[in-house]
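Q: Joint fold for the lines below.
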Amino acid sequence: MLDWALFIVAIFICIALFLNLWRLMVGPKLSDRILALDTMYINTIALLMLYGIHMGTSLYFEAALLIAMLGFVSTAALCKYLLRGDIIE
Amino acid sequence: MSFLVETIISILLVFGGIFLLVGSIGLARLPDIYTRLHAPTKASTLGISGVLIASMIYHSVHTGTFSVNELLITLFLLITAPVAANMIAKTALHQDTKAIERTKGQELMETIKERRAPTLSEEQTDTTQENKQV
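A: Joint structure:
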């Protein structure tokens, strides 16, 4: 049963990633693209955790933590750059 | 691994996957940036929490020791998602992104954009109050 759940959820997340990619390419304004990128980080973390369950190892936890932290920092940096014209004032 | 634990993990995984999918569909389909902000910041955060808690239970049962590593990512995402959404909304306001027609209180957008709290001069305060009354 767990294998089937993993399979179904992986398909869901792949569809979600394609929708994010579509918004990343289409998105009329720059803020839409930043939002799409931020959502892609979250979906990537979910996909990595699924792979960790599938392989039965907790090795991918560190990768997911790194993606979460760098994702937030990059979103903040992009928004700060667009808002103020500078990242660290 | 017992049947009960496997059922709980599967239910949590499917719950999380459905919410992640709903968040991304909302991101793709909603009409403007201010409505689009809602879907990923709320639904996706709930979905990722479900997946991470399922992973936490799986690794706790699999290794036999209680592991709370995944709770770290869950807490971090729950804290940072609203902050990131707020910054993206500020960026959209700064770039003069138009909201859809039905949005209420559109006349306040200019005021919100230019508000520099808490040091307002008297003249600016007056215009702010006037705009609020409209």
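Q: Anything notable?
A: The helical segments of chain B are 3-29, 33-36, 38-63, 69-94, 109-114, 122-133. Chain B has two domains: 3-101, 104-134.
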